Amino acid sequence: MFDGYEAICCRISVCVFELLSVLLLLVLLSSLSVDGRKARVHHYFEYSAMSCRAHSASLTDFGGVGDGTTLNTEAFRAAITHLSQFESDGGSQLFVPPGNWLTGSFNLTSHFTLYLDKDAVLLASQDVDNWAVIDPLPSYGRGRDTAGGRYISLIFGTNLTDVIITGENGTIDGQGALWWDKFHRRELQYTRPYLIEIMYSDNIQISNLTLVNSPSWNVHPVYSSNIIVQGLTILAPVTSPNTDDSCLNTRIEDCYIVSGDDCVAVKSGWDEYGIAFGMPTKQLVIRRLTCISPFSAVIALGSEMSGGIQDVRAEDILAINSESGVRIKTAVGRGGYVKDIYVRGMTMKTMKWAFWMTGDYGSHPDNNYDPNAIPVIENINYRDMVAENVTMAARLRGISGDPFTGICISNVTIEISKTSKKIPWNCSDVSGITSGVVPKPCDLLPDQGLVAECNFPTECLPIENVEVQTCSYRSKYL
Ligand SMILES: *[C@@H]1O[C@H](CO)[C@@H](O)[C@H](O)[C@H]1NC(C)=O
Ligand SMILES: *[C@@H]1O[C@H](CO)[C@@H](O)[C@H](O)[C@H]1NC(C)=O
Ligand SMILES: *[C@@H]1O[C@H](CO)[C@@H](O)[C@H](O)[C@H]1NC(C)=O
Ligand SMILES: *[C@@H]1O[C@H](CO)[C@@H](O)[C@H](O)[C@H]1NC(C)=O
Ligand SMILES: *[C@@H]1O[C@H](CO)[C@@H](O)[C@H](O)[C@H]1NC(C)=O
Ligand SMILES: *[C@@H]1O[C@H](CO)[C@@H](O)[C@H](O)[C@H]1NC(C)=O
Ligand SMILES: *[C@@H]1O[C@H](CO)[C@@H](O)[C@H](O)[C@H]1NC(C)=O
After folding, report:
1. Measuring from atom 8 of ligand 7, which residue has the nearest CA?
2. Per-residue model confidence as pLDDT tens digits over 272-319
């Protein structure tokens, strides 16, 4: 349906790259037959990435053992320390072969690709002592679960450039049950670790992986820019997957997420800490996402939004059995803003609320938040959607004395379930317009007749024009 939009923006050189890879393969095959037994290629494959690498190594070169019980933390650290010498010499890639690779946390380096074979499974260490404790994020002031520090992520990077984590749908298993139990029993000393966190970095690609059982958030880019998240399968019983936090220019696409929390959470810091840090999330594209989130939202903006959230464009979204489609969460004390939000082409099946705005989310880091720091919510556009089996079309609550303004909803048909006894729209402290919306919206969002079409920007964001290229990996000759 929205292919037209994409065609204008992007996809130019796909065919060229495919041709190139066929040629490469032919060259390789002919060199094989010429050199015969002498130079047999041990292992060769191709993959898509923002940048290719000159140097390669396998985890097994550094003593890695993929038996599911040997701890590989030192192998990962030694491999990446060794490969970091190639940062300014064409970069490097680390191959993780088939196997079950138990590991504690390790840090990434710049101009580096971590590549998981399709049968490679990273298993997060179950020994809490293997997890270093790091400072809270400055824009949060404290950990999200507990006051004070937080356990470092399984895969961590800070102050980097050009980092890729990919693989033919290889798996990262956070083995989170240990952490969920501690969380529910209130035994946690520090905030639970994430699977992947990249801070203060740019040019990041995280793609074609399956992430399961994260102790907490799955992928957390923060204070970073130029990020592509593509082709992830995220299966998470209790956690919050992609959290795009104070980031500039991000593209999240072709992901399948089953979550106990929001499928994509967009954030930018918490109350006085987020206001002081002042780093917004801007220029975020979310497309071709399938989400199942029975207790949370498909796309959540906030509740931590104190640095501001601006210019989010989401389209071609399938939501199944989820609590709400798009949710804006905020509170007095947050400050900041959520503005210029555009969502179109969303199909929703079995939802509690298609649209939800919450102005009294509460949840403060401490009692030092500024009660005069009121958030600004404006220019929110939803269009071209169908929903079926929905309990309520919308529950929209702004803040008394601080209404959410510039809401526009057009061409949206919501089928309310036969068993619902709720009124379809319940609105307060909001203003805006609607057009071609069924069932009839609340009086605060008057219908304009079939004339208005809510906005969706036509020009591309820079991240939409970033092309992936075909890269190759070749292990040492036998
Ligand atoms: C992910 O995998 C798909 C299907 O194999 C492939 O077309 C795509 O180029 C890959 N993308 C990235 C960024 O790895
Ligand atoms: C990884 O980076 C963090 C933050 O810079 C640091 O605290 C930690 O010691 C590093 N870990 C290793 C093994 O170098
Ligand atoms: C990373 O960058 C941030 C922001 O520029 C800076 O404050 C911090 O000291 C840097 N950290 C390291 C380990 O270089
Ligand atoms: C990746 O693996 C997951 C889990 O096994 C599976 O559900 C998904 O369909 C796979 N994705 C692709 C593109 O093969
Ligand atoms: C209305 O939305 C549907 C998708 O729900 C879309 O197929 C249709 O083209 C839209 N109509 C207009 C006039 O944009
Ligand atoms: C409709 O939604 C209800 C929950 O509100 C669910 O129990 C039921 O299975 C759904 N029906 C269909 C046809 O999906
Ligand atoms: C609308 O929501 C408010 C707050 O949840 C509730 O008190 C009120 O009864 C609702 N209105 C109707 C008509 O259901």
Report:
1. 426
2. 999 999 999 999 999 999 999 988 999 999 999 999 999 999 999 999
107 CA → ligand 2 middle, Å: 6
Least confident segment among 69-73, 128-132, 235-239, 429-433: 235-239
Report residue 377 as tokens.
């919510």
Is residue 34 within 8 A of residue 153, CB to CB? The reply is no
Nearest partner of 253 among 14, 459, 468, 448, judged by Cα: 468
Ligand 4 neighbours by CB, cut-off 6 Å: 169, 210, 233
245 is catalytic: no
Pair 95, 115: CB distance under 8 Å: yes
Q: Quote the ligand 7 centre to 248 CA distance (angstroms).
A: 38
Equal fold, 57-226 vs 262-364+375-477: yes
Q: Does CATH place domain 57-226 in 3.20.10.10?
A: no
Residues 6+ apart with CB under 8 A from 64: 58, 72, 75, 76, 79, 96, 101
Nearest in space to 337 (alpha carbons), one of 410, 265, 281, 264 = 281
Residues with a CB atom less than 6 Å from ligand 6: 350, 389, 391, 417
Contact 91, 471 (CB under 8 A): no
Q: Report the pocket of ligand 2 as residue ranges, CB < 6 Å.
A: 77, 107, 132, 134, 156, 158
Would you give the end-to-end CA distance of the chain in angstroms?
50
Question: In whole angstroms, what is the distance from residue 96 CA to residue 4 CA?
Answer: 38
Q: Does 384 contact ligand 5 (Cβ within 6 A)?
A: yes
Chain centroid, CA 476 distance in Å = 35
Upstream peptide bond of 439 is cis (omega within 30 degrees of 0): yes
pLDDT in tens, 292-305: 998 899 999 999 99
CATH number belonging to domain 262-364+375-477:
2.160.20.10
202, 245, 261, 262: which is the annotated catalytic residue? 261
Residue 141 pLDDT level (bands cut at 50, 70, 90): confident
* CA 426 – ligand 7 centroid, Å: 6
Domain ranges in the chain?
A: 57-226, 262-364+375-477
Return the SS3 of 110.
coil
